[in-house]
């Protein structure tokens, strides 16, 4: 109990306040950000102070501070008073460094998303995962590692979940145990609760980058090379239809965002996404987002509905965040009927797999078409496939830039223009390899030249 906590019970490593940023706080748990988390035996004290502030403070001031930050100083003053009063009443002595951590965590409970708020505030962290109250992970520099952040219990996790979904008018319970949501900053959230989640509620957050990556960022990170970027820019400007393929977390959306930035400003662009992530800056831009249905299954607006509607909006380009169902047929038909230069992503492990998956998704449209007709439509609609991969060291690479050359018999012909060749792994686990052109001249060069774009032949020489 909190009442039994005394100065001698606190861990010496935290008592003296000598905490180095980014070091392991305990065992295999890593501290991200500028402060470590509270020791596990102080979690009940955090909960007690948080509850006391809620009881003593009017809800409107708290809501105002959460929405705009205008009353944040007042909330912090009241939280500090509650903390000092609780420590005094319970006879607990805490050194200043640990007291500051305690106050910061209480503020995270009041105005943020509790234990995971410091992870969301860290710009270097790209993903936050909660598997259980004491199992919180974060991805940084491509590596997913266990952090020192902890929830009190499953009820605490559920309270943060409700804090996420309530402003969106959504609910998560036994009748609706799975939900996709979005934080105010655009970060994507997936939530699963019992009975589907056997160990308790789970949260997965894919953080939204406030400053979108540019092509120069991708070149600097080694995702692709300058010749590859030059070729892709030319393909976008010449209005070739392009498909970005890759596994989960491979960086498909980031690459799609970069390629979309190459679209000329004078063109009308319609973006269609399941959860809005793209950050385009074209002057004539319409951004559409799908809407899930109610618990009764009503009022849903699907990606397919939006693709069909977009054709009535006079788009020069259609950018679909990801094709994952019957909307693939509508997208292919749009690509084949004058909407050149369209872009989309798909989950697949290779360019050949991307085409096979596109065939499968097209069959989900419910339209009775022979497979050869579907394959032929795909081969004529897609000109370039950009394959993205997440390597074993966590780095993201464009592993293939592949042209689609039509059909020969029942087979779609593919030709790699650029590839990433892995040659080994360094002692510290980093992947060794390089991007290189295959030496083959792209057939798309004729179309690029027709658009007034000339690329030097040396760009494609090995």
Largest sheet: 9 strands, mixed
Shape: elongated
Structural class: alpha/beta
CATH topology category name of the largest domain: Rossmann fold
Cα-atom radius of gyration: 26 Å
Q: State the separation between the terminal residues, measured CA to CA.
A: 69 Å
> Which strand-content bin applies to the residues?
15-25%
Number of helix segments? 15
How many separate domains make up the residues? 3
- Strands, total number: 17
Average residue-wise pLDDT: 87
What is the subunit arrangement here?
A: single chain
Extract low-pLDDT stretches: 1-27
**Annotated CATH homologous superfamily of the largest domain:** P-loop containing nucleotide triphosphate hydrolases
Named CATH architecture of the largest domain: 3-Layer(aba) Sandwich
User: How much helicity do the residues have?
Assistant: 25-40%
**What is the CATH first-level class name of the largest domain?**
Alpha Beta
Order of strands across the main sheet:
11-10-12-13-9-14-15-16-17
């Amino acid at each position: 109990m909190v009442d039994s906590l005394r100065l001698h019970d606190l861990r010496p490593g935290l008592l003296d306040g000598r905490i180095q940023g980014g070091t392991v706080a305990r065992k295999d748990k890593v501290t991200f950000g500028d402060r470590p988390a509270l020791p596990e035996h102080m979690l009940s004290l955090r909960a007690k102070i948080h509850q006391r502030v809620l009881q003593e403070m009017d809800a409107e001031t708290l809501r105002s501070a959460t929405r705009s930050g205008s009353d944040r100083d007042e909330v912090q003053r009241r939280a500090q008073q509650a903390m000092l009063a609780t420590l005094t009443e319970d006879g607990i002595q805490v050194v200043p460094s640990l007291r500051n951590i305690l106050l910061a965590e209480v503020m995270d409970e009041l105005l943020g998303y509790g234990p995971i708020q410091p992870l969301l505030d860290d710009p270097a962290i790209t993903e936050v995962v909660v598997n259980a109250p004491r199992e919180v992970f974060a991805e940084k520099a491509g590596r997913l590692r266990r952090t020192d952040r902890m929830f009190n219990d499953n009820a605490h996790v559920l309270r943060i979940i409700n804090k996420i979904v309530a402003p969106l008018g959504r609910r998560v319970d036994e009748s609706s145990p799975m939900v996709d949501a979005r934080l105010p900053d655009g970060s994507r959230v997936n939530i699963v609760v019992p009975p589907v989640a056997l160990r308790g509620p789970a949260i997965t957050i894919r953080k939204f980058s406030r400053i979108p990556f540019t092509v120069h960022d991708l070149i600097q990170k080694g995702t692709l090379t300058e010749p590859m970027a030059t070729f892709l820019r030319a393909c976008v400007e010449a209005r070739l239809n392009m498909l970005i393929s890759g596994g989960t977390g491979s960086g498909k959306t980031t690459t799609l965002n970069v390629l979309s930035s190459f679209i000329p400003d004078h063109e009308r662009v319609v973006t269609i996404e399941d959860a809005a992530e793209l950050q385009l800056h074209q002057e004539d831009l319409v951004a559409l987002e799908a809407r899930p249905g109610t618990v009764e299954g009503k009022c849903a607006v699907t990606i397919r509905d939006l693709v069909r509607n977009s054709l009535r909006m006079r788009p020069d380009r259609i950018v679909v965040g990801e094709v994952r169902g019957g909307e693939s047929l509508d997208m292919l038909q749009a690509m084949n009927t004058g909407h050149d230069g369209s872009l989309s992503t798909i989950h697949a492990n290779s360019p050949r797999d991307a085409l096979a998956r596109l065939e499968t998704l097209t069959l989900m449209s419910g339209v009775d078409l022979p497979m050869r007709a579907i394959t032929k439509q795909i081969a004529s609609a897609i000109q370039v496939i950009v394959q993205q991969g997440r390597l074993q060291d966590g780095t993201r690479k464009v592993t293939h830039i592949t042209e689609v050359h039509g059909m020969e018999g029942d087979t779609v012909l593919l030709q790699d223009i650029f590839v990433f060749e892995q040659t080994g792994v360094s002692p510290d686990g980093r992947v060794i390899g390089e991007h290189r052109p295959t030496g083959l001249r792209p057939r798309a060069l004729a179309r690029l030249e027709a658009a007034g774009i000339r690329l030097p032949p040396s760009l494609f020489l090995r």
